[in-house]
Amino acid sequence: MAKIFSAFRDGWGRVLRAPTILVGVFLLTLVAVIPFGLVLEQDIRASLGHSLDAQTMAAGVHSEWWDRFGETATGLGRTFTPTIIGFAAVLDNLSRFLDQGPLPLAIVGLGVAYLVVWVFLIGGILDRYARMRPLRTQAFFAACGVYFFRFIRLGIIASLGYALLFWHVHGWLFRDLYGWVTKDLTVERTQFVINVVLYAVFLALVSFWNLVMDYAKVRAVVEDRHSMLGAFLSGWRFVVSHPMKTGGLYFLNGVMFIVVVGLYGLAAPGAAGFGRAAWLAFAIGQIYLLARLAVKLSFYASAISLFQRSLAHVGYTAAPDVLWPESPAAEGIVNAAPKGGPNAS
């Protein structure tokens, strides 16, 4: 248990001692969604215009206009529903995740774009947390480039596992098994308990697969692995060989995530209207996103810490710093140097 808590504290320490990573990823995420927000703003502006509905929506919520807008909206406009207000967005996302709710095509496209950016950045982020010292911008993005195509290959393995879980295991649990177990039951309370148990089983399976893929990334970076199949198998072996450590650390980070979500649930406003209230709602939402991102990064940083404490040593990475040449002139000097050493003719 001591090693679990030490890795948890050390992981958060690595995240907080590298604020540039946290703030940079947050700002990149914010900038990436601005174009989509502008497109949605144009759709809403075209629908409201200068009508009385616009004044009502500015002061709060006009449910009748919102219903009419939802019936005619296309693309990103279909995502503008009452579930985006405050804590309802968190509950809606959880419901979609557990019940495989449909997603608008625009959201799927945005999610894929975000995933590609994240796959590019995660190599540099893990490398920075593993080394526990500042890296120059060139070194950070060089590490991102080195691991990007490796993690694309690892992502194929991860996708196969998630596809199996969400397309087959989910259906078997909640359609076949649930239907068979509850077909003769008449007590709703018992049906609810069975449903909760099945959700717990499904979440445990998803968490295990997520844990394996996290440690596969960790081993790929810390040990500078080129084979992603080897990194996956190594991550699997590490999780299976240290179930209490890896599971306990994952649980601690999960509790921290629940705490962040719970605090947002207490602080999240409803329909904010306009003026100071709207800016306050925006600020609370951004603080929540920043805190949630910090929790996500702590999952990786603490996993690196646990692995280094278990199989290597703190601060260990197999690969040297990846550096780009300072300038084309520097690269030219290296290329022009004699190949046989100082005595080369």
How is the secondary structure organized here?
Blueprint lengths: L1 H15 L2 H30 L3 H8 L3 H10 L15 H12 L5 H27 L5 H46 L5 H35 L5 H14 L1 H25 L8 H36 L16 H9 L9
The figure for the number of domains is 1
Instruction: State the assembly state of the protein chains.
Output: single chain
- Compute the gyration radius: what is it? 24 Å
Mean pLDDT: 78
Shape, per Cα inertia axes: globular
In what range is the share of β-strand residues? under 5%
How would you describe the overall organization of this protein?
The protein is mainly α and 345 residues long. It has one domain. Helices cover 77% and strands 0% of the residues. It has helices at residues 2-16, 19-48, 52-59, 63-72, 88-99, 105-131, 137-182, 188-222, 228-241, 243-267, 276-311, 328-336. The longest helix has 46 residues, at 137-182. The radius of gyration is 24 Å and the shape is globular. The termini are far apart.
Concise overview:
With 345 residues, the chain is mostly helical.
